[in-house]
Design a protein that fits this description.
By secondary structure, the protein is α/β, with parallel strands linked by helices. The protein has helices at about 15-30, 50, 55-65, 80-95, 95-105, 120-135, 170-175, 200-215, 230-235, 250-255, 275; strands at about 1-5, 30-35, 75, 115-120, 145-150, 180, 220-225, 245. It has two domains: about 1-120, Glutathione S-transferase Yfyf (Class Pi), Chain A, domain 2, CATH 1.20.1050.140; about 130-275, Rossmann fold (3-Layer(aba) Sandwich), CATH 3.40.50. The chain has eleven helices and eight strands.
Length: about 290
């Protein structure tokens, strides 16, 4: 059993409930114990870093301090949370003066913070793609999937750096391990519009429809992502294109033999039946 301090972030119990459920379920299957950080707070994405640089670093830094006594690396499923946590961890190590200011502000100890890992990195580097492949019970043969990293997971390189910033491959490797086929396409790190979903839905719709159309043109039957905001935008702003937008944990769960209902694949906005039908038969959702 591999243990990690777990930072679920705000969205995994709300708009990204499917991500939270599938993350916990798949981690149990793969022998990863997620121990939730006590009294964690919002990382500040996306509003804090638009208003105050200090607040944008102090909020995730407090979570780093809360995780420090346990001494375990932090596993973060959400790409935006991961980006903010990594930026804070790097900032307090690079700048002692800034670290002191945040420590005084938050009343915490930030010296030598524990490592921050994205859940995708945990699966690829800590568990290993080959081990995941060995655990596959229901290979998703014939399913063509577009790996969509978004703009926050691997950028900027000096802050994240666990994959290539222009042509990342870790999510593609996971798709292959599940028995599916990652399509070759050129929009895997394009921005979906992020936090503009409320103030400028017209821009977000245009960006999302462009991304989904290019995935379809590449032959994809679904898009696989790790970012709750990307998933929400693509799921709700793609118009009539009808492309399932699923989390990589849901994909892994299906390959491990878990049911679509366990992974909450029936609660997405855009119909996911093109993906669900690859799983063993089960009773239809209520």
């Amino acid at each position: 059993m591999i243990q990690f301090s777990y930072y679920p972030g705000c969205s995994l119990s709300g708009t990204a409930r499917e991500f939270g459920l599938s993350t916990e379920r798949v981690c149990r299957e793969l022998g990863v114990e997620l121990l939730e950080i006590p009294d964690w707070n919002c990382c500040g994405a996306s509003s804090a870093h638009c208003t105050s640089k200090l607040l944008a670093l102090a909020l995730p830094a407090r979570n780093l301090a809360l995780a420090k006594p346990a001494g375990r690396p932090i596993a973060v499923p959400c790409a935006a949370c991961y980006n903010r946590m990594r930026r804070a961890a790097n900032a307090v190590q690079r700048d002692p003066e800034l670290r002191g200011e945040i420590e005084r502000l938050m009343g915490v100890d930030l010296k030598d913070p524990v490592p921050v890992r994205h859940l995708l990195e945990v699966f690829v580097s800590e568990i290993g793609v080959e081990k995941i492949k060995e655990r596959v019970k229901a290979p998703l043969s014939g399913l063509k999937a577009a790996a969509y990293y978004g703009c926050l997971l691997v950028r900027p390189k000096e802050e994240t750096g666990f994959d290539d910033v222009e042509n990342p491959q870790t999510l593609d490797e996971i798709i292959s391990a599940c028995g599916a086929e990652p399509v070759r396409w050129f929009f895997k790190v394009e921005c979906c519009g992020g936090g503009l979903a409320v103030p400028r839905p017209d821009i977000v719709s245009r960006l999302c429809q462009r991304i989904v159309q290019h995935a379809r043109d590449a032959g994809a039957e679904c898009i696989v992502t790790s970012c709750p905001l990307c998933q929400f935008n693509l799921d709700t702003r793609q118009g009539e294109l009808g492309m399932p937008i699923i989390y990589f944990t849901q994909l892994i769960g299906l390959a491990l033999g878990l049911s679509p209902r366990e992974l909450s694949l029936h609660t997405h906005v855009t119909d996911t039946s093109a993906v669900r039908r690859r799983a063993p038969a089960e009773a239809p959702p209520a």
